[in-house]
Amino acid sequence: MVMPMAVRARTITKCFGDVIALDGVDLDVAEGRIHGLVGPNGAGKTTLLGLLLGLAAADSGRLEILGAPQGRAPAGVAGFVDGPGLYPSLTARQNLAALTALRGPDPGAPGIDDVLERVGLIQVADDRTRGFSLGMRQRLGLAAALLARPRLLVLDEPANGLDPSGKRQVHRVLTELARNGTAVVLSSHRMDDVEALCSEVTILATGRVVFSGPLAKLAAENRELDYRLGTSDPDAARRLAADTPGVRVVAGTGLLIVRALTPALDTLVTALVQGGIAVRELTPVVSPLEAAFLELTDQQEAAR
Ligand SMILES: Nc1ncnc2c1ncn2[C@@H]1O[C@H](COP(=O)(O)OP(=O)(O)OP(=O)(O)O)[C@@H](O)[C@H]1O
């Protein structure tokens, strides 16, 4: 089924004085997708998210949000960049109440306690946000966004400062939103988070898109990866690896590091098992996304 597009951006350019923050950026995000935006510092992620939120306008290009051209008030869009704006002297509950009052009546909106519960802040609902940690502020920002019943949720580094259980909770909330048709666009410097959450990713480098598409495509593209290989017989495994076409032993004595494309790695694993050698560990040293990120962003830097 083809889902309607929540974001359709074409050749978006945005400059700050002499700095070209976005340079001909295209972006497509369908409803119900969680789309990761990654890139080195200064790549343009926050600028792009700000445009999606309607906080600024592009200098040129075409941007459609939820089917409407940029310039109209982006109803159904919620989120934050550079951390959520909160009143420090108010409690979490009061912050959300103030926001609800500002937005005006919405009979279908979830209750304040409901969203606080969903992001795991109900226990601290009556604490002033002045004392909140970064992770708690991020979660309160997400709760505020949930109140708006977003069809497009835009989050800048939502996992910043979250402990593992907070992260799991936020992942759960975002996955549930996407299941119900909300498009989520988030930036992150954590490739493991992006891989855990997103089905598709855009890699930006110096304001340009160097990759945009399904995460699976990055893994499947012709890119050799280094794998950590632990077996029941490291010496025999090393010999077999060295004899397998397309596999290079990069390092290691006990735990080997081998470099290969997926088909060659499959051949090695089959040979190990047929040779009676148990495979105890086989993990990429860096994930396919991280490897692609480094390679693509390095290429972009080199081309400058
Ligand atoms: N308000 C602004 N005034 C001047 N320059 C800006 C402004 N906002 C962003 N820039 C510049 O635009 C470029 C892109 O910045 P942006 O914050 O979008 O990058 P980013 O990918 O979000 O970086 P980070 O990962 O460090 O948050 C940078 O060179 C930045 O210095």
Automatic annotation (TrEMBL):
Q: What is the protein name given in its UniProt record?
A: Vitamin B12 import ATP-binding protein BtuD
Provide the alphabetized UniProt keywords.
ATP-binding, Nucleotide-binding, Transport
Gene that encodes the chain: btuD_4
The protein's matches in PANTHER family, at most eight in alphabetical order, are given as: ABC TRANSPORTER, ATP-BINDING PROTEIN
UniProt cross-references to InterPro entries, sorted A to Z? AAA+_ATPase, ABC_transporter-like_ATP-bd, ABC_transporter-like_CS, P-loop_NTPase
Record GO terms (molecular function): ATP binding; ATP hydrolysis activity
Give the domain of life: Bacteria
Q: Which organism is it from?
A: Streptomyces smaragdinus
Q: Which family does it belong to?
A: Belongs to the ABC transporter superfamily.
According to the entry, every stretch annotated as the ABC transporter domain falls at 7-231
